[in-house]
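Why should sequence recovery work at all? Because a backbone constrains its sequence more than one might expect. Tight turns favour small or flexible residues, buried strands favour hydrophobic ones, and helices have their own preferences. The token representation captures these environments compactly. In the example below, the structure is given first.
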């Protein structure tokens, strides 16, 4: 009898461990890009199983957002109602949905709040992207500067520095822009060690460095950076156009 009870307990524990956690399974589908499956099947199933769990509503709302389903905002509102004090991820998704609806003021406010609470690199980058999209260059600069100060921005990610440089270039702040592009290149040199194809960020950084030098009238440095961009990506259209333009300027 005792053996049967112990066997039953072991079997129950094994079955319990073999069953995937529904929330973890939903997150796995999202992480691996199975958005339609998550939105159409796993999300509704999750709400049936956990109708009062904010995280279930959030994950379903995120799946709906990723598939362009307009129900995402309604499902997220339920997550916000259930959570009381929403997590930064909930504010982040709310900001993305407001941007999707064209309400950029609310979107920027929500994304900045989400970043302030989380210090998450991805959230800062989305904040910057949406601020830039709305034409608010000052807010976009703040966001990319914030992203650049996070751990990924300091050690591994060139993009916040590249985006800062591009905005500074648009504002005519050429020296500051060049410092940002140089920082992006420093990060690329430190992290691009696998010997594979160079990151597309190399061509972007060198090209925009060339633009900065050209704007300052230093055509020799501009050409050198354009050539470096072409060496990194021989098909980079803006670089090829810039080199052709400079060649025409030198022609007698």
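From this structural description, the recovered sequence reads:
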């Amino acid at each position: 009898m005792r053996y049967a009870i112990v066997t039953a307990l072991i079997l129950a524990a094994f079955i319990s461990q073999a069953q995937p956690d529904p929330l973890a399974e939903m997150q796995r589908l999202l992480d691996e890009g199975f958005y339609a499956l998550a939105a159409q099947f796993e999300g509704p199933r999750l709400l049936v199983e956990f109708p009062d769990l904010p995280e279930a509503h959030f994950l379903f709302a995120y799946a709906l957002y990723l598939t362009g389903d307009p129900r995402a905002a309604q499902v997220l509102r339920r997550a916000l109602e259930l959570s009381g004090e929403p997590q930064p991820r909930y504010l982040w998704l709310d900001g993305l949905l407001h941007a999707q609806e064209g309400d950029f003021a609310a979107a920027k406010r929500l994304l900045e709040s989400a970043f302030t609470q989380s210090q998450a690199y991805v959230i800062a980058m989305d904040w910057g992207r949406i601020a830039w999209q709305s034409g608010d260059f000052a807010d976009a600069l703040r966001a990319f500067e914030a992203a650049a100060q996070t751990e990924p921005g300091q050690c591994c990610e060139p993009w916040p520095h590249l985006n800062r440089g591009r905005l500074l270039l648009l504002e005519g702040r050429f020296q500051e822009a060049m410092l940002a592009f140089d920082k992006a290149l420093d990060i690329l040199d430190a992290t691009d060690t696998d010997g594979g194809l160079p990151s597309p960020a190399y061509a972007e950084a060198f090209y925009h460095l060339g633009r900065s030098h050209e704007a300052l009238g230093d055509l020799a440095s501009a050409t050198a950076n354009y050539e470096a961009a072409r060496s990194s990506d021989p098909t980079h259209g803006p670089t090829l156009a810039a080199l052709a333009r400079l060649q025409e300027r030198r022609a007698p």
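A few observations help interpret the result. DSSP finds 15 helices and no strands in the chain.
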